């Protein structure tokens, strides 16, 4: 295998691909990136067996020229650190036997490599169930929901991912950990299409997080999502990401999130967030679990904290409707949710002291945050 | 004025048994892990046993050799805890300013109590008398101007003694002592100090503060102050209110070499930890597992979960830690489980109603155990096959 490649092209492809290299693995070959040179393109791949990527670079005069096809696997860590520090324009790779010679200007390096035959296939599901979507839209949905997923100590592993639920031209994304739910949905635009009428799948949170980092903000960048029973694929012009999916049931989020509000408040997102953040400074230092109380009275939300370290009372003016309510929450849950809302004003719906608070942007309701409270007891007024 | 008292119960565990069962009085009594099983260590030896050279933390077989006629008793932590509470409530009669340091030690600040009970030494005598009369237990009391010196003083004469230590006594009484006897100096630190040619508390007092700070960080500057008998920390009645962690560990009667056996021990420990945390109305979010191999190499591994005090959650987290940090073969001699990052118990509403059920189940099991004893109800996993079969036979 022999090729020369533009330094920037190489650096940016490695930085994308290396996100899929596991940081800890008992299988040493997985610490590497596979380089496969074909006649007209070069493919970089990496996998941690849960998710993998194939990144393609086309043979173009000033970007890449392939002199000899073949494939090798090179440890990613040293390679990536070196390429970042190369100042010349072009880098040459030349492999023979189990070594790769990398040179650029006066720089020369020899690294051992693994046999590419031993590298696992980035498995493809060959599904024809395709949806074409905007990268920016999908990325945005991930950012709005992923915070609410469960961590990996949950007894329900499916909750470490997010549910993708597509039906009737509407794409829903939902994450929940049992105490809160984040749900958003988008209607497909004219340039977005689907070959299937409906499908549901649970994608691991780690996959989605990587995707939200790699996908572009460009409104014109699209990708295709292929779903099958055991895996999903995300195909863009440059790369293909595959991921396993999670088995298990997801709670019927639409029903759970339908409540009859007893109390409603409309409030400035920033003012409420800042008040809760201030309260949380004291609440999380104290011996309570970041517990913050909301006393919602006519046209204001009083935010209260009381711990052994001190007391805070704060007031956010707002417009309210319905009954007064005193309710307590984990402040962290509230802050997480409020940070995902970019609308200047929000609506809060409360059913009762032990029921959820549902937070939505004032103008749209396609992003809902659902947070369950902490029961207040007699000894903790 | 020497307003600080440090009360240290003498041979506490062994004395609790002697007080409870007068037939043990005057006999060498040793509290050790299950007396029927091997490789226990001596938790406490009564003063009668200490005369034969038995020391705390000595292996049981060695103690047996030194004092073959000794009575070995299995630890009864409930008894110690109840007795400890009685001791602390006696102390509470003399001053409201009590800082409980451990199950058998506490500091009192008796400032302002002289009018009622006399000077510090008179108060110490009254405390000793009350504890002896009501609980049939002995204690040593150190009297000084600060917590450090009071603690050092209570250690100087045992049992049943009152020792007064003033700042003026520090050069004469404290400085000749080996450095490891200073409060806050552990075995490792003592070794490190020894290598710096600091062997006595006096050597430490003379060592420049900057030098100690460089070697031990913040602790170094404390060492310097303490070696000079200086300590301005207040007796804090609330120091125990916010426990940082609660844990249990067990030295296994036989080294464990399978996941099945280890899981049973983890569940047993998780139950103990959970019960204690629930009793104190706390919840914690960090589960730590301690593994000590037969080689005595010890590792601890932690994981953070959502706040809990349920046995199941503690067990599940500790089991995960076990599986990711142990090969299931290397012999284990000790297992420990602890829960830290504790906060006051709270009742987070959950989407899944089994969270609520789990909580209620734990509470009910605790109540049954409190009323009818620890064996009245337990998880079936804790029955090893032999016991399970015995129980089956009984019920038939």
Automatic annotation (TrEMBL), chain B:
The keyword Ion transport does not apply. The record marks 13 as: Substrate discrimination. It comes from the Bacteria. Its main location: cytoplasm. It catalyses: DNA(n) + a 2'-deoxyribonucleoside 5'-triphosphate = DNA(n+1) + diphosphate. The keyword Repeat does not apply. One of its GO terms (cellular component) is cytosol. The active site is at residue 105. Its EC number is 2.7.7.7. It is an enzyme of class 2 (transferase). Monomer. NCBIfam families: PRK01810.1, PRK02406.1, PRK03103.1. Belongs to the DNA polymerase type-Y family. This is DNA polymerase IV.
């Amino acid at each position: 295998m022999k090729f020369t490649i533009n330094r920037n092209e190489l650096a940016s492809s490695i930085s994308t691909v290396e996100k899929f290299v596991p940081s800890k693995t008992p299988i040493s070959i997985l610490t590497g990136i596979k380089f496969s040179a074909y006649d007209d393109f070069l493919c970089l791949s990496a996998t941690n067996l849960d998710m993998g990527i194939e990144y393609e670079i086309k043979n173009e005069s000033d970007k890449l020229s392939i002199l000899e096809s073949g494939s090798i696997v090179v440890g990613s860590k040293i390679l990536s650190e070196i390429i970042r520090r190369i100042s010349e324009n072009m880098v040459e790779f030349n492999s023979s036997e189990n070594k790769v010679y990398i040179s650029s200007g006066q720089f020369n390096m020899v690294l051992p490599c693994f046999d590419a035959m031993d590298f696992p296939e980035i498995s493809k599901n060959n599904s024809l169930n395709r949806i074409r979507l905007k990268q920016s839209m999908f990325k945005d949905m991930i950012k709005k929901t992923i915070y609410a997923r469960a961590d990996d100590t949950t007894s329900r592993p499916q909750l470490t991912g997010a549910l993708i639920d597509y039906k009737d031209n509407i794409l829903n994304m939902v994450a929940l950990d049992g105490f809160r739910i984040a749900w958003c949905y988008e209607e497909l635009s004219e340039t977005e299409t689907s070959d299937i009428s409906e499908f549901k799948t649970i994608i691991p949170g780690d996959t989605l997080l990587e995707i939200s980092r790699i996908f572009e903000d460009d409104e014109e960048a699209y990708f295709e999502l292929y779903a099958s029973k055991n895996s999903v694929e995300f195909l863009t012009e440059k790369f293909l990401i595959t991921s396993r999916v999670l088995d298990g049931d997801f709670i019927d989020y639409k029903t759970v999130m339908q409540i009859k509000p007893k109390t409603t408040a409309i409030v400035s997102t920033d003012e409420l967030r800042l008040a809760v953040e201030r309260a949380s400074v004291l609440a999380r230092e104290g011996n309570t679990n970041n517990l913050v109380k909301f006393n919602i009275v006519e046209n204001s939300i009083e935010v209260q904290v009381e711990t052994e370290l001190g007391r805070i009372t704060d007031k956010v003016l707002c417009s309210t409707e319905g009954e007064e309510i005193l309710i307590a929450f984990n402040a962290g849950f509230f802050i997480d949710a409020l940070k995902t809302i970019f609308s200047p004003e929000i609506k809060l719906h409360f059913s009762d002291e032990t029921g959820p608070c549902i937070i939505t942007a004032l103008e749209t309701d396609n992003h809902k945050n659902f947070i369950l409270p902490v029961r207040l007891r007699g000894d903790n007024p | 004025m020497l307003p600080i008292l440090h009360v240290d119960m003498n041979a506490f565990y062994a004395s609790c048994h002697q007080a409870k069962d007068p037939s043990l009085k005057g006999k060498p009594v040793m509290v050790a892990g299950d007396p029927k099983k091997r490789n226990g260590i001596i938790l406490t030896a009564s003063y009668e046993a200490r005369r034969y050279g038995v020391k705390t933390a000595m292996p049981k077989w060695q103690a047996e050799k030194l004092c073959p006629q000794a009575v070995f008793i299995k630890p009864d932590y409930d008894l110690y805890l109840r007795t400890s509470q009685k001791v602390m409530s006696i102390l509470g009669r003399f001053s409201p300013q009590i800082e409980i340091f451990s199950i058998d030690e506490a500091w009192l600040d008796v400032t302002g109590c002289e009018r009622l009970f006399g000077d510090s030494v008179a108060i110490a005598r009254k405390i000793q008398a009350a504890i002896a009369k009501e609980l049939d237990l002995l204690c040593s009391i150190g009297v000084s101007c600060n917590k450090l010196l009071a603690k050092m003083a209570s250690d100087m004469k045992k049992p049943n003694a009152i020792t007064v230590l003033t700042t003026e006594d520090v050069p004469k009484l404290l400085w000749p002592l080996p450095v490891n006897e200073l409060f806050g100096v552990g075995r490792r630190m003592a070794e490190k100090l020894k290598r710096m040619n600091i062997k006595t508390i006096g050597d430490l007092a003379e060592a420049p503060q900057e030098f100690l700070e460089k070697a031990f960080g913040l602790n170094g500057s404390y060492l310097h102050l303490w070696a000079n008998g200086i300590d301005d920390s207040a007796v804090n009645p609330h120091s125990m209110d916010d426990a940082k962690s609660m844990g249990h560990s067990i030295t296994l009667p036989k080294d464990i070499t399978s996941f099945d056996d280890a899981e049973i021990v983890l569940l047993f420990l998780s139950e103990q930890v959970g019960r204690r945390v629930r009793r104190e109305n706390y919840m914690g979010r960090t589960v730590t597992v301690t593994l000590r191999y037969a080689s005595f190499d010890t590792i601890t591994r932690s994981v953070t979960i959502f706040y809990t005090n349920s046995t199941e959650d503690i067990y599940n987290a500790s089991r995960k830690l076990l599986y990711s940090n142990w090969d299931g073969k290397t012999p284990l001699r000790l297992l420990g489980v602890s829960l830290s990052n504790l906060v006051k118990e709270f009742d987070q509403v959950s989407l899944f109603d089994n969270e609520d059920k789990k909580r209620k189940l734990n509470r009910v099991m605790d109540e049954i155990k409190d009323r009818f004893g620890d064996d009245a109800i337990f998880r079936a996993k804790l029955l090893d096959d032999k016991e399970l079969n015995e129980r089956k036979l009984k019920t038939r």
